[in-house]
C-alpha cells in the first residue's frame, strides 16, 4: 500500500530476556564507525515505545545484548544546543543542522534515581539517509553524566 | 610507536596536513599545539576512553523495566534548568 513503511523484526534483550520487536524500516540506521567501544556494531534499530516515553533504545541488530537507552537531550537539559565538528558533519553527510536528530545515551546505575545522560557525546542521526554516529564534543559546557532526575523531584521541588 | 624528542618551538608533521607543535614544557606538563584540517577530530585520549567506558556501562544497565516508573516521574517533574 502506498505510504506503508515496511516493518522489520529486531531481537532485543532490553528487559533481560530476548524478545522480538517490530520497528519501521525508517528506524534502522547504519553506524559506519559503530560507537566508541563498540566499533564492530554498524547496524542499529531505534526502538521507540510510547509506554516508555521519553526513553527509547538504540539496539544493535547483530546482538540483542548490545542496547543503549536513549533520550532526547532536551529532556536532560532544556536548550541543549551544540556545534557538531566538521568531520562528524561530513561523516554523517548532513546537508544542514535540521537534518540531524540528537539522542543522549543514558546510564542507569544501581541507584536508579541517579540515572544520567551523556550530553558530552551525543548520538547524532541523519534522518533522511539513516546514518548515525556518536559525536564526542570538545567543549566544557556539557557533562558525560548529566543527572536526569532533579533532586527532590517527587513533588517537593 | 615512533619516538621523537622535541624542544619547545619544534614540531612534528603527520602526513602532509597535520602538525604537532611543542609550545612549552615545564617538566610536568607539555603544552601542545595541533594544526589539522577542520574535519580531523582532535581529542584528549582520556576523553575518548571515558566515552568508551560510559558506553560499556550504559549497555550493561540493569533491566529497563524500571523505565516505566521513571518515565512517569520525568514527565511529571518541572522542566530542567539548562
Describe, in plain words, how this protein is organized in 3D:
The complex is a heterodimer of chains A (157) and B (82). Chain A is 6% helix and 36% strand. Chain A is mainly beta and 157 residues long. In chain A, the strands form two sheets. In chain A, strands 3, 4, 5, 6, 7, 8, 9, 10 and 11 form a nine-stranded antiparallel beta sheet that branches. The termini of chain A are far apart. Chain B is of the alpha+beta class. In chain B, strands 1-2-3 form a three-stranded antiparallel beta sheet, with no helix packed on it.
Question: Helices, strands, pairings?
Answer:
The complex is a heterodimer of chains A (157) and B (82).
Chain A lengths: L6 E9 L1 E8 L3 E3 L12 E6 L6 E6 L6 E5 L1 H4 L9 H6 L8 E8 L8 E2 L5 E4 L4 E4 L11 E2 L10
Antiparallel strand pairs in A: 1-2, 3-4, 4-5, 5-6, 6-7, 7-8, 7-9, 8-11, 9-10
Chain B lengths: L10 E4 L3 E8 L4 E6 L9 H15 L7 H10 L6
Antiparallel strand pairs in B: 1-2, 2-3
Unreliable residue runs of chain B: none
What is the number of helical segments of chain B per DSSP (H or I, 4+ residues)? 2
N-to-C span of chain B: 43 Å
Strand order of the largest sheet of chain B: 1-2-3
From the spread of the alpha carbons, the general shape of chain B counts as elongated
Helix and strand run of chain A: EEEEEEHHEEEEE
Helices and strands of chain B, in N-to-C order?
EEEHH
For the CA atoms, what is the radius of gyration of chain A?
16 Å
The major beta sheet of chain B can be summarized as: 3 strands, antiparallel
Portion of residues within helices of chain B: 25-40%
What's the total number of strands of chain B? 3
Low-confidence runs of at least 5 consecutive residues of chain A = 153-157
Query: Which term fits the overall shape of chain A?
Result: globular
Computed Rg of chain B: 22 Å
Q: What's the main sheet of chain A like?
A: 9 strands, antiparallel
Distance between the termini of chain A: 50 Å
- What fraction of residues of chain B sit in β-strands? 15-25%
Structural class of chain B: alpha+beta
Amino acid at each position: 500500500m502506498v505510504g506503508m513503511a515496511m516493518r522489520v523484526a529486531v531481537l532485543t534483550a532490553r528487559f533481560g530476556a530476548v524478545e522480538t520487536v517490530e520497528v519501521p524500516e525508517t528506524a534502522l540506521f547504519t553506524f559506519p564507525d559503530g560507537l566508541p567501544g563498540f566499533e564492530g556494531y554498524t547496524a542499529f534499530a531505534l526502538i521507540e515505545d510510547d509506554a516508555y516515553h521519553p526513553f527509547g533504545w538504540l539496539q544493535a541488530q547483530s546482538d540483542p545484548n548490545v542496547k543503549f537507552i536513549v533520550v532526547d537531550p532536551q529532556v536532560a537539559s532544556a536548550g541543549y544546543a551544540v556545534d557538531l565538528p566538521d568531520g562528524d558533519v561530513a561523516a554523517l553527510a548532513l546537508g544542514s543542522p535540521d537534518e540531524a536528530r540528537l539522542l543522549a545515551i543514558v546510564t542507569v546505575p544501581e541507584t536508579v534515581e541517579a540515572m544520567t545522560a551523556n550530553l558530552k557525546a551525543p548520538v547524532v542521526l541523519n534522518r533522511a539517509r539513516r546514518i548515525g554516529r556518536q559525536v564526542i564534543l570538545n567543549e566544557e559546557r556539557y557533562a558525560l553524566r548529566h543527572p536526569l532526575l532533579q533532586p527532590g523531584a517527587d513533588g517537593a521541588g | 610507536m615512533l619516538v621523537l624528542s622535541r624542544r619547545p618551538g619544534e614540531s612534528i608533521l603527520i602526513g602532509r596536513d597535520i602538525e604537532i607543535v611543542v609550545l612549552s614544557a615545564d617538566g610536568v606538563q607539555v603544552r601542545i599545539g595541533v594544526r589539522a584540517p577542520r574535519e580531523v577530530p582532535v581529542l584528549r585520549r582520556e576523553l575518548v576512553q571515558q566515552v568508551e567506558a560510559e558506553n560499556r556501562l550504559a549497555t550493561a544497565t540493569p533491566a529497563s523495566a524500571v523505565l516505566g516508573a521513571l518515565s512517569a516521574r520525568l514527565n511529571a517533574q518541572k522542566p530542567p534548568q539548562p
